[in-house]
Design goal:
3 domains, four-stranded antiparallel beta sheet, 13 strands, elongated
Length: 799
Amino acid sequence: MIGKVILTFRLPIGLTLLLFTAFMGYEATRMSIATSFVEFFPETHPNVTLYHKYLRYGGAQSLTVMVKVKRGDIFNYQTLKTIQDITFDLDRLPAIHHQSIRSLGSYRVTYAVASPGALASRAFMYPDVPSSSEGIQELKRQVFVHRHELDNLVSDDGKSAAITASFNEGRLNYRELFQKVQDLVRHYQADNVLIRVAGEPIIRGYGYYYMPVIVGIFLASDAVMVSLLYLCLGRRSTWWAPLVTGLSSAVWGLGFVGLEGYDFDPVMLVIRLILTARDMSHGIQWQGRYYDELDRLGDKYTACLETTTAMLPPGLLSILADIAGIIFISFGGIPVLAHVASSGAVWLAGSVAMVFIFQPIMMSYLPTPKRKAPAKHVSIGWLRGWRSRLVDKLISFPTTPGPIRGCALTMVGLMIVIGLAAGLHAKIGYTQPGTPLYRRYAKVNVEMREVGAVFPLDEGWIIMTPRAPADMFDSDVIRLQRDLTEYLLRDSNVARVIAVPTDILQPFNQMFHYGHPKYRSLPITTDDAAGLFTLFRQGQAPGEAEQWLDELHNDVILRVLLKDHTYSTLRALERELADFQRQEVEDPGLAKVKILYLGGLAGLYAAANDVLYELDLLNITFVLAVICLFCIITYRSFVAGILFVIACVAANFAAFIYMKVMNIGITIDTIPVISLGIGLGVDYGIYIMSRIRDECETGQPLENAISIALHGTGASVLATFVVIVGGIVPWIFSPLLFHNEMSILLIILMFTNVIMGLLILPAYIAWARPRFVFGRGNRERYTSGETVAIRARVSGADG
């Protein structure tokens, strides 16, 4: 028997676990708190591969600073000087990609001027801002003459201007960058000038901005959990034992994060809390059963043996369900989810060692926990009385035949049907502009909407690369780019397409013919196109022209600027690109080049959308299969496996109903919580079912077994539910919408699983009376003689 082995060798086993926990604690100190943006996307997806292969065209870590005037327009010296100064200041930010900076005040933004025998490129506002009224008016004229090339930098009404830049991802420190950008905003904001910032670095940076609040909520959550644990178990002197083992398991998980060198994302902090709460819940279940056995047997050693023997099988099954709920999210190839899965599996697996091995060892060394006087603990007595009364009422439901019990079982089937429909129609990806990480009216989302209403923030890449040795200035290839540009612009969600034909060749061809409007068209021959691009390149700094067309690699990029990266926008764009190739299958340009899509930021989000729905269904399938398999093995019954799958499905489909009602999509941020929820509350049913089975094996009638299980284990289940939900409630008030929505989702999951574990499963057992519940006969019980032998084997322990 495992309990005998553990207590016989408790000293070496306990020391080994303590030393390993200390080692993992040291590794936890090496853990870094950071965000790696690209790890949020499936690394083997074609879009992500395309993104990395053509990273020379720029990255997804882009920043847009909007300068907006309240009165008048931007064409005054002070506002124009602000635009240029911000441009220069952005160039000094850490990890900036210098060639990516674009603004009205940048030397990289030019227009062509015709002169006898040549075309010259001239910057709009470099090196100096025009100070005279004549100079400013001429600048204004040039801006509106070239408004097509500048529509992503200057608004049509002339009231706003944008400065855009991107950053080198490998060296990006979001916390430092966020602080420096906010310093720029405070420095340049004035009475008539509003500064608004948007972009992925700002989204990630707000995670560090809210870090003090998040840490405060985390500490408040811990305090609530400890307080509730004391209220539930504080009638005994060792009420804190689940806290010790739960935190030790957390040390294992954090140590694994440090050992593997993973970044600890601050936004994912709520997931780590859930993992710790799960570890504590197993400790509470063990401790509650230990107290029951101690009251029955009167000896702490025998109680430890009985509890370990009885709790290890359901505990191991529960932990396997928890691990299955998180480990399969790594199948999507998304690195951050793989990190959460692997560290979460270690985190949860720590419960096996710390709860079911170390906790009985610790209790065997501690003095026998004494009951505290009720008079000195009125609050504990009140809670105990309330809990007992509630359990008494719950017991009568599953053991009482009648229409109420039948109606409840029918309602479970109805919830499965509704939840299945909601799950099949679950929304994928982002459903609204901005970011769902933060509340809709948080500053980051307000500013993103303000900037996005004027300047597009999301960019998708279309790469054209030759099928065989070909010239990217071939007239068929150039025309194909123009036709694709015009085709995509029919989509209202496409704000602009930046391409060589429309942004360079056409305006340069017009200026080459002294600005005559009829020559704003494509050059006729390959040599003409190559010559115009050469004129453009000669007016640029070294390496600037490669942001448009890379002659060394002989490929070209079309940048599709989108109004948002919602699921519907990205799916429509991918569908239009596929339709264009089908419709133009006989185009000679298609025979010369391959069209590769979708790269850039839009491509990364589209890649995540492609795998998330399949990952969610795959994860649910695997988790249910694991739960079914291990329940069949544990209870030696196919009926048990099917029963737990139905209970798990019914409880967790409530999550899909909630997500459907609240319009929450399946995203990279939400799927770990959903996955955890799959196996989260099935523990309750497992512990209740195992206790019923244990009592039946001792010869108790089924109704009595259910009553005993709900009085004992049921009370522990309620205590676990109260502690975990109490720890989750503070996260409802987090400034992050992700924390708010996921907290409510988890509370719903916990509640439905409690209902399934305490009411529905026992009701079904009482009604159907399946054979596996009755076990294989009477289970061994310790005699007084055996108790003496046990005490002799662990001699030296204090009583």
